[in-house]
Amino acid sequence: MQIEVYEKGKYQLLRLKDDVGLNTDLGELKIAIEAQLSKGVSNIAIAFTQKSYLYTKSIAVLISCSELIKDAGGHLAILEANRDILDILSVIDFDKMIVLYNSEADMVTGTVSSAPR
After folding, report:
1. CA separation, residue 83 to residues 43, 71, 101 (Å)
2. Please, which of 4, 17, 47, 74 could form a disulfide with 79 given CB 3.0 to 4.6 Å?
């Protein structure tokens, strides 16, 4: 899995370059997040591709990452989530535990997404 990592506003952005699907292992994402936390970075945003879809295994990794970030005193944000991802996050109430942004510009200004697209 290719992950582009760069700073954007107060967040370290991890932009996934590959679609997430049924057989995707998000272990590399967790390793990338752990690496950022070990550097003292605690505000982390994840951007999925527009064709990504979350399944049980990937949701479990996201929840685990969220707990690691929270324990480090930081915040997890999801950036540019497609409708399917927003719906899944809403169904499991995970959207109440993280911050959702529609774009990098919104993330920089702190304009939180108010409704699923």
Report:
1. 24, 29, 13
2. 47
pLDDT at residue 116, rounded to an integer:
44
Q: Please name each of the domains of the chain with its CATH number.
A: 3-109 (3.30.750.24)
Residues 81-106: tens digit of each pLDDT: 999 999 999 999 998 899 999 999 99
Structure pTM?
A: 0.92
- Looking at the DSSP bridge assignments, the partners of residue 14 are 5, 46
DSSP assignment letter at 35: H
CA distances from 69 to 23, 63, 95, 105, 116 (A): 25, 10, 15, 22, 24
State phi, psi for 16 to the nearest 5 degrees: -75, 130
Task: Give the whole-angstrom CA distance, residue 47 versus residue 104.
Answer: 9
Measure the CA–CA gap between 40 and 52, rounded to whole angstroms.
29
